[in-house]
Design goal:
This protein is α/β, with parallel strands linked by helices. The chain is about 50% helix and about 15% strand. It binds glyceraldehyde-3-phosphate and zinc ion.
């Protein structure tokens, strides 16, 4: 199967009140685990690589891994560049074959954010690549982007319609109480703010910082019309904890890397399957906009 874009999967999700899960990966094993989880749930899925992950794996290698995975996949797979702040890097990723990108100009002021995000949309259009952008600032640490709690800013709903119209984006990440990474205290989502945004735009809305938010809260957002949920840290933890466990359990004379890494793939796959079921996208693999 060819890679799909956010345009192929999110409008349908929004209309039918389920969300598509988007999961961060940092190499082959977790990428494959994510796809396995999606296939087990018969759900569309978004595989996300951050700018840092692409630099670690290699940009063309990242595309190669996911195109290879998608080729034998029974479910739609989108390859999405996550939280990219460097426009030249985004263009390279689009040219390399990403089917979707996120331009994160959320640290910039409103007009600059519009201008930079629109420039990415204009560029990506010729490559049939979808674009997500962010308005407001999600707090916490994601890759090399650190937003201290005091600098996180919730999205102002009234800013949304002009932002969406002028940029032409396919999905909008908003800040309404979620945080990247593990939570230091109980997460408190501002559901009224989400409702206000959903009232003002048809653009599919994205929740960042999915790790650690109670599933009931995420499901409440999805029931209101949220269409994409990002999860990263929880998979990183499952990867590392499983690897640590295998290192302890396997005998010292074991040197086949596959014995260590197959359980890692399984652990990632299990979490992804559970999330997709909870997000309501299980069984929706055949759906396209
Ligand atoms: O963009 C990636 C996500 O927002 C990941 O957030 O690591 O808190 O799950 P998380
Ligand atoms: Zn994020």
């Amino acid at each position: 199967m060819e890679l799909v874009t956010l345009r192929d999967i999110l409008p349908k999700a929004k209309k039918e009140y389920y969300a598509v899960g988007a999961f961060n990966f940092n190499g082959y094993e977790d990428a494959e685990g994510i796809q396995m989880g999606a296939e087990r749930a018969a759900s569309p899925v978004i595989l996300m690589a951050s700018q840092g992950a692409c630099q670690y794996i290699g940009l063309y290698e990242t595309v190669g891994i996911v195109k290879g995975i998608a080729k034998h996949s029974k479910v739609p797979v989108c390859l999405h560049l996550d939280h990219a702040t460097d426009c030249d890097f985004i263009k390279e990723a689009v040219k390399a074959g990403f089917s979707s990108v996120m331009v994160d100009a959320s640290a910039k002021e409103y007009e600059t954010n519009i201008r930079e995000s629109k420039a990415v949309v204009d560029f990506a259009r010729d490559y049939n690549c979808s674009v997500e952008a962010e308005l407001g600032k999600v707090g916490g640490k994601e890759d090399n982007i650190v937003v201290e709690d005091r600098s996180a800013t919730f999205t102002v709903p009234a800013d949304v319609p002009r932002y969406v119209d002028e940029t032409g984006i396919d999905a909008l990440a908003i800040a309404f109480g979620s945080v990247h990474g593990f939570y230091k205290s109980e997460p408190k989502l501002d559901f009224d703010r989400l409702a206000a945004v959903l009232k003002l735009t048809d653009c599919p809305i994205v929740l960042h910082g999915g790790t650690g938010i109670p599933i009931a809260d995420i499901q409440r957002c999805i029931g209101m019309g949220l269409a994409k949920v990002n999860v990263g840290t929880e998979l990183k933890a499952a990867f590392s904890n499983t690897l640590r466990k295998m290192c302890k359990e396997l005998p010292a004379e074991e040197f086949d890397p596959r014995k260590f890494l197959k359980p890692v793939k399984e652990a990632v796959s299990l979490i992804v399957k559970e999330k997709l079921e909870a997000f309501g996208s299980a069984g929706k693999a055949a759906d396209k906009a």
